[in-house]
Amino acid sequence: MKNQTLSLFLTILLSFVFHLLMIADTNINKNAINIYHIHLSEEIQPAAARMIKKSFLEAQKSNVDYILLEINTYGGRLDVADSIRTRILNSKIPTIAFINNNAASAGALISLACDKIFMAPGSSIGAATVVNGNDGQALPDKYQSYMRSMMRSTAETKGRNPNIAEAMVDERVIVPGIRDSGKVLTLTATEALKYHIADNISEDTKDIFKDLNIQNYNLIEHQITATDSVISFLLNPLVNSILILIIIGGLYFEFKTPGLGLFILASLTAAILYFAPLIIDGTANIWEILLFLIGVVLILLEIFIIPGFGVTGIAGIICIVAGLTFSLVNFNGFQFEFNFITGDLLARSFFRVVAIISVAFVIIFFFGESIINLPGFNRLVLKSEQFSHKGFTTRQDELYQMIGKEGVVIQPLRPTGKINIEGNLYEAISNSHYVEKNTIVKVLSINGYSLTVSPKA
């Protein structure tokens, strides 16, 4: 009996102690400083802006005490860097930049926007001249002036030397006692600390927290999900350029081959992959997608219903190009707030879309027939049913015997239709544009299970 009483007493005592420990642990967690840790170690492109936007919103929802932005980048797009800078400046949560190696160009602007800057030994900040992304040459002075004003105003807002910030952009800016004109300013960690651009030099994040007198903290790492990775991949300029190629190529080859098949499916899939991440990112608007779809419909009308190639087809091409171009520029609905940065981005987006479409047509011109005639495509493309009792024949050996023969168009070629050769009906594709009914045509070659024809001279 005594043993049972002792066991019960010890059990109650241990439970009470454990409960006290749990309460103590809870109090410690409640009193801990919550720090949201973000890694920015990529080129400053739309994917980076999306990541920063999402992480700042998550940090705000988590009610953290600090946002720690670990930076290692050589820069990127000016408009994207400006949007990140603005988000940091407007943050109600104190921000800390930890430059872990490089904060060049756009990275320098983003760092200056933070409340505190810590730099790892051997790291650097500066070299913020705006350059051409193709050849690395400095852009005209209006771009440098805009970047100088952003760097200066950002430095002033955070109590840093605005002249030093300007000197990181323009080699003509003289900072007495620091640097004469001649080269764009880049500061080492030691120099940045000396001239009060950086707050301290730190080996790692633990050193930063120690310097800020933060002993009890929870470090919350920003998690990049698989969806984030896919969206970032699709937002890559090279990837969405390839998607535009597939959209245009798919439409063309579908028009050249009868029936709803592989090509139109590829084109629609590419269009979804092109527009979906832009909508999620907030860059594209619904009206831009509708503009693109209207363009596709107009071209379909031109090819299959309206003879020739005129106003409808040209309007369709304009709508497609406009839809693809506008979707790359972040407009707030129909509010077109133009400045030279937005105008430059719009111009570059337009020329990129036009260049990609031009490349698509060059590929089609030189390799189109070869692609259509590949055995794999002939098996994959869906064909409409053609019954022999209706006068159709689909034996390919018979099709080859039709080369050089003449037939009569019984269904207008736009560019596909049907022709009659010696009492048999064949699917035909015009090698030119619209061919009217009752026109005599000559078979030039075989295109899959269709005949490529040309009006008889």
Please render the helix and strand layout as text:
Layout: H1 2-31, E1 33-40, H2 46-61, E2 66-73, H3 78-89, E3 95-104, H4 106-112, E4 116-119, E5 124-126, H5 141-157, H6 162-167, E6 186-188, H7 189-194, E7 200-201, H8 205-211, E8 217-221, H9 226-235, H10 237-256, H11 262-281, H12 286-304, H13 311-326, H14 340-372, H15 375-380, H16 396-401, E9 406-411, E10 416-421, E11 424-430, E12 440-447, E13 450-455
Parallel strand pairs: 1-2, 1-8, 2-3, 3-4, 3-5, 4-7, 11-13
Antiparallel strand pairs: 5-6, 9-10, 9-12, 10-11, 12-13
Helix pairs in contact: 2-3, 2-9, 3-4, 9-11, 10-11, 10-14, 12-13, 13-14
Can you offer a commentary on this structure?
By secondary structure, the chain is α/β, with parallel strands linked by helices. It folds into four domains: 1-31; 33-224, 2-enoyl-CoA Hydratase, Chain A, domain 1 (Alpha-Beta Complex), CATH 3.90.226; 227-379, no CATH class; 384-455, Beta Barrel (OB fold (Dihydrolipoamide Acetyltransferase, E2P)). Helix content is 51%, strand content 17%. It has 16 helices and 13 strands. The chain has helices at 2-31, 46-61, 78-89, 106-112, 141-157, 162-167, 189-194, 205-211, 226-235, 237-256, 262-281, 286-304, 311-326, 340-372, 375-380, 396-401, and strands spanning 33-40, 66-73, 95-104, 116-119, 124-126, 186-188, 200-201, 217-221, 406-411, 416-421, 424-430, 440-447, 450-455. Strands 1, 2, 3, 4, 5, 6, 7 and 8 form an eight-stranded mixed β-sheet that branches. The chain has a five-stranded mixed beta barrel with strand order 9-10-11-13-12. A hairpin with a 2-residue loop joins strand 12 (440-447) and strand 13 (450-455). Helix 2 runs antiparallel to helix 9, helix 9 packs across helix 11 (262-281) and helix 10 (237-256) runs antiparallel to helix 11 (262-281). The chain is elongated, with a radius of gyration of 32 Å. Residues 16-28 and 382-389 have low confidence and may be disordered.
